[in-house]
Amino acid sequence: MARRDYDRYEIMKNSDGTINMLPFVTISESTSDLNEVWVLGRSRLDKLALKYYTNPFYDFFILYANPQYIDQFEIPDGALIRIPFPIDRVKLEYESILRKYKES
């Protein structure tokens, strides 16, 4: 059976296939979260997502957990990056945020 990748836009899709604008999302802190020191020139969000989630395409979850940065190019050397964990909790929270936004 073919693996179906996670579609982060699925909840926001309309019946005609268009996608509603995504809200600003921040993943809440949890005692199960992990931390990683950012090493400028070596660290990348996709590498962290691969390391902790075994999927480099979940990098946006890490960015949503660190809303002080717009993208990875803003992260300074030595910054402590929060890795929201485990991924199942993170997905549920993300999907809940999108559903509430779409219903409002």
- The overall strand count is 2
Overall geometry comes to elongated
- Strand fraction equals 5-15%
N/C terminus separation: 37 Å
Domain module count:
1
Query: Which percent bin holds the helix content?
Result: 25-40%
Unreliable stretches covering 5 or more consecutive residues: none
| Strand arrangement, major sheet | 1-2
> What integer is the average pLDDT?
95
Structural class: alpha+beta
User: Over the alpha carbons, how many angstroms does the gyration radius reach?
Assistant: 15 Å
Tell me the major beta sheet: 2 strands, antiparallel
Give me the strand/helix succession: EHHEH
How many helix segments? Answer: 3
Key descriptive features of the protein:
104 residues, alpha+beta, two-stranded antiparallel sheet, 3 helices, 31% helix, 8% strand
Report on this structure:
- With 104 residues, the chain is α+β, with helices and mostly antiparallel strands.
- The chain has one domain.
- It contains 3 helices and 2 strands, in the order βααβα.
- A two-stranded antiparallel sheet has the order 1-2.
- The longest helix is centred in the C-terminal third of the chain and has 17 residues.
- The chain starts with 33 loop residues before the first strand and ends with a helix.
Q: Strands, helices and their partners?
A:
Elements: E1 34-37, H1 45-53, H2 59-64, E2 80-83, H3 87-103
